[in-house]
Write a structure and sequence with these properties.
Elements lengths: L48 H30 L34 H8 L2 H12 L5 E9 L5 E7 L4 E6 L7 E5 H8 L11
Antiparallel strand pairs: 1-2, 2-3, 3-4
Length: 201
């Protein structure tokens, strides 16, 4: 046995080292402590991203539709370039064309309600409406009422900002259905020119 303090070899068991005086008593090792199990903190259950996804996509879709409708209605309100402060209310005819904007009661009585409403509009609004009916790319700049036939079908001409021009036929049915021909086609097929009063007027 050796002294743990100075390393002197000891022959007999003793309580103290004869050389350095250090205690030679055997100290029992401290008792082993059992580790205490600490419970893990509870995990907070977060909703999975998958459970929210359909709801978020639905809300985003609704928001996009609301914005699109708002922008579209603002475009329709401002498409008259400030020519009228009253709102135009448009509906679609059976052919998918916009119907004539609702205006005040018409003083006209041509036997064609849609034509009477069209005649009651200011000239600039007539041109814008007829341009929209004729072609999506036509911004109407000039409208001309050519006249009506014996069955009250109305014939109009419209000139577009892009240089094209069209003949628009407004039927006397309850929808005010329309038929459109380019002025060049009308002249080639019927010999009738746009922007000229019909002979029966």
């Amino acid at each position: 046995m050796y002294c743990a303090s100075c390393g002197t070899e000891l022959s007999d068991p003793q309580q103290f080292c004869p050389k350095c005086g250090a205690s030679l008593a055997v100290v029992p090792p401290p008792p082993k402590q059992r580790p205490v199990a600490v419970p893990a903190p509870p995990k907070l259950k977060r909703p999975s991203s998958n459970s929210r996804s359909p709801f978020l996509w639905l809300m985003a879709g609704v928001l996009i539709i609301v914005v699109a409708v708002s922008v579209t209605s603002n475009l329709h309100e401002t498409s008259g370039e400030g020519s009228s402060s009253k709102k135009e209310v448009r509906s679609e005819s059976a052919e998918g064309n916009p119907s004539i904007p609702r205006a005040a009661e018409s003083p006209f009585n041509t036997g064609n309600v849609a034509n009477d409403k069209l005649l009651a509009l200011p000239e600039k609004e007539q041109a814008l409406y007829l341009g929209a009916v004729a072609n999506a790319s036509c911004h109407g700049t000039r409208a001309f009422y050519m006249g009506s036939s014996h069955d009250h079908t109305a014939f109009w001409s419209v000139a577009c900002r892009n240089g094209s021009s069209y003949s628009v036929e407004v039927d006397a049915d309850e929808l005010g259905s329309t038929k459109v021909l380019e002025c060049s086609v009308l002249r080639a097929v019927t010999g009738t020119s746009c922007f000229v009063k019909l002979n029966n007027q």
